[in-house]
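User: These chains co-purify. Model them together.
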Amino acid sequence: MMCLGIIRGLSFIYFAGGNMSAKQKQDAGITHDGMFFAQEQLHEMHDKMLFIRRFEEKAGQMYGLKKIGGFCHLCNGQEAVCVGMQHAAEATDYMMTSYRDHGHVLARGSDPTAVMAELLGRAGGVVKGKGGSMHMFDADKNFAGGNGIVGEQVPIGLGFGFSSWYKEDGRVTICVMGDGGINQGAVYESFNMAALWKLPIVFMVENNQYAMGTSLDRASAETQLFKRGISFKIPGMKIDGMDVLEFDKKMSEAIEHARSGKGPILVEAMTYRYRGHSMSDPATYRTREEVDEWRTGRDPIARLQAQMIEAGLATEESFKQKDRDIKKEIAAIAKAAEAQPEPDAAELWTDIYTDPIEGAYPYPGRVG
Amino acid sequence: MSKITYREELNQAMAEEMTRDESIFLMGEEVAEYNGAYKVSQGLLDKFGPKRVIDTPITELGFAGLGVGAAMTGLRPVIEFMTWNFAMLALDQIVNAAAKMKYMSGGQYSVPMVFRGAGGSAARVGAQHSQSLENWMANVPGLKVVMPSNPADAKGLLKASIRDNDTVIFIENEINYGDVGEVPDDEYIIPLGKADVKRAGSDVSIVAHSRMTGFALAAAKELAKEGIEAEVIDPRTIRPLDENTIITSVVKTNCAVVVEEGWRFAGIGAEISARIMERAFDDLDSPVIRVTGKDVPMPYAANLESLALPSVRDIVEAARTACGRA
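Assistant: Joint model of the two components:
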């Protein structure tokens, strides 16, 4: 059969299950722990994960060529968390995360050319070239950053959740932090108020085992991070973040919990980043064997591919073709982003105040 | 005109604005059931209910961030710090989040909110509860910093701050809360970014904000007895600063004294002095003189405390020197 999967404006054609009957085609999919995933959904989730993987690889390459400056934190290995979460959430739900944000903003549905242009500091960047790698925002997609200070997004997420409680708008806020961020005091201030006022928030910790170069057991007295909400009466869930179907299912339950008015919930996503903390990190604090164990044994993309092949929804060859298509698409995106101009110099002075005060800002005297 | 206190004016400003716009809520420590640590929010819980007047745990960083997030969704939070001393715990949310959000997000997210509370030197409360930090806040692009010096300004400026679409740092003065002043009966708004000439004069310009405006006016009265007519300017908004009003005055008087309660190093006075130097250098007959708090932590003993703060006498002496009548 022929399916049309759409990733951010570009189309891919692939073939799978060519010998199925019409009825079988309709029912084709995978049931995971009682949750049915239709083949269209599976292909979409796969393609998004693979897209994020290849996008990050391209970003790493562009960084190596000094085309991307400053800090650049890649999420290779963590794609199932980004994609599974978005699949479980509504488009109207709010989300925000830390500086490791490329995968999340792409999964949220932002224009990848704008994301790449942002990395390159171009005018057409998702925040006009003013934020860079760490500060992706897309208000139309309810994506509130892209926050650079570890743990800073958690009180902000509390505010989004408060807003939904105040307005009774039925939205859930998904507030993402890392296993480093969860040690910040601001997180517990937020847990307390979220639980006290039963705000509709899913706090999600992406436990990729390392806060920069510090392993979880060197930084946390309680390494079972999903238990960190217990003294605030926040229930916790630990989810395999390397299995997109499992993640989607459990995350859907967590979101439903928050949406139903029961208050916040804490989700610990067990995951792993294949690359260093940032581009300058050779990751000498962990062994090659450890990285290989995750990469080859638990890779979320390879896992879904194997499941889909077994279910007769795709073939190795169809995935190879898809990979070639995605790589080609990303090369075109990088080229288009690079061709964009840098921001206009006048942008230096915009977006500082919504109501600037004439005669007082910018300085009326000598400009400084 | 009615005569009421600075505290009541602030209360009225919030009540009027909350009546007008349901997206405004007040949150902070003891603002609701206790009616405010300084009684600024007296009666607001009864009037608006517990959804819009919200007591928080003692958790400044957390509820400051809550305000930022809520403002990003279009609500208009008024976040009270019991005093600005405690806002230091919330600096990351004020400086790194509220002030920069609009810029970092390429203009997509505004943070229309007010952080307000008591600032400046209090009385006999020691080093940690008695200080002026407006220069910290005023250093940050993206923030607006407002400091009313009297009851009428307090109301008009707070209403303008709540209506403003940017993050406003609204620093009240603890010692001024009980001050009584005449205020218009009809609704009024005082625009941000506009200084006010509190007393006209031709001999020396005295720029002073918050509680120091009153000190400067008292000094001007003393100076008048000696035939020195001081012009007293209250910037009211510290950032963005209404530089033009100050420069216009200095061009007229040819000398200036800048007064602040806070520390001298990199203070508001340093900024205003530099601006005068940049734009009115040729009009100056003498160097700008700064009258500031002493460069020490605030002591407890009454005598030491008064030595640490600027006095009316300090301002009088500085003005005499500035205009060559010492």
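Residues 1-18 of chain A have pLDDT under 50 and may be disordered.
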